[in-house]
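Weekly structure sync, notes
Attendees: PL (lead), two postdocs, one rotation student
Agenda item 3: pending single-chain targets
PL asked that the sequence for the first pending target be pasted directly into the notes so everyone works from the same version. It is reproduced below exactly as submitted, 173 residues in total.
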Amino acid sequence: MPRWHPLQPADASFFATAPHIYRFPTEFPVPPEQVWDSLTSDESVSAWGLGVRSLRWTSARPFGIDATREVELPLGLITVRERFFRWDEGRGYSFYVTEANRPWLRRFAEDYVVEPGRDGGTRFTWTIALEPTPAMRLPMLVGSPLNRLAFGQLVRGGQAYFAKNASSLGGAR
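Predicted structure, written out during the meeting:
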């Protein structure tokens, strides 16, 4: 049984004040409703590819503020428990990590924004904000370019997922 390490809560201001902020705006070739349906599905972003190893909602539907889930990153690197503090149905959500199975982070939050994009597609913006523990400050600073590359895998996976499935999902043409 993993040992869980509590993290401090975060709110929307953390996306502007965190020591490490990674923002990934992109376009998907499907309508916003399709992206939202994927984000709120049982698989959510784990269906998009390598960015997430497994994801399990731990709240009952319908999801909203205070919904929870547990997410494991690839290679068993870290597993986190999340609590949603913003839920704008069809437009986006934000959550912070309540616990992690590794003692690396003090605060961690993510923000997902789904907006109409070009040609009937979706403008998707994913933001990650994190604050490492004191012991991880230097490694996190040195590893920031690698973290950006690794985190970006989720968006690249989403681009490939929606491009491949645009016609079967009824996407923009």
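Discussion points:
- Strands lie at 5-6, 20-28, 54-57, 68-72, 79-88, 92-100, 105-116, 122-132.
- The helical segments are 14-17, 32-39, 137-142, 144-165.
Action: rotation student to compare against the earlier draft before next sync.
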